[in-house]
Specification:
The chain has one domain. 94% of the residues lie in helices and 0% in strands. The chain is built from two helices and no strands. The longest helix is centred in the middle third of the chain and has 56 residues. Keywords: Membrane, Transmembrane, Transmembrane helix.
């Protein structure tokens, strides 16, 4: 690997490689935030559905008593 690195021209080592690393790091960061955001959105939706279901059950039980 060191031989390959030293065989590259200096402009590739100093410009191209860091730019590629930054692009890959940015894409990885966006991916991680996207996954976390999707999981949080799913959790919020699930909590809303559970809350609505609980309210319906309470109202049905209350209506059945009367």
């Amino acid at each position: 690997m060191a031989e390959l690195w030293k065989s590259l021209p200096s402009w590739v080592r100093n410009i191209v490689v860091p730019v590629l690393v930054l692009i890959l790091a940015w894409n990885l960061l966006v991916f991680v935030f996207g996954v976390v955001g999707a999981l949080l959105a799913f959790a919020v939706k699930a909590l809303v559905v559970v809350g609505i279901a609980a309210a319906v059950v309470i109202l049905v039980k209350k209506a059945a008593r009367n």
